[in-house]
Amino acid sequence: KKQIKEVIPIHFGEKEGNYFAFYESGNVAVQGEYQFDEKVGIWTEYYDQKRRKKRQVQYGKDPFDESFRPYIIKEWDKRGKEVYANARK
Length: 89
Fold this sequence. Notes:
Layout: E1 6-7, E2 10-11, E3 14-15, E4 17-22, E5 28-35, E6 38-46, E7 53-58, E8 71-76, E9 82-85
Antiparallel strand pairs: 1-4, 2-3, 4-5, 5-6, 6-7, 7-8, 8-9
């Protein structure tokens, strides 16, 4: 029995589409989106238990915007309690 570690969308040789990484348990570890080999939008990391969110990171909406710097939107502890929230929108 084989388990999937990650799903990397490749289109014409570049990462393009929805990305997923998995824990050995089969639960989702990370999900996000690539455009032209660059991370875009909100990427979410999960704890291995009960699919609880761990962290959300905001990447640029445009993969060609080199001035945008990714930042953490929110973080949660293992019990699901929010421990950090960025005031930037």
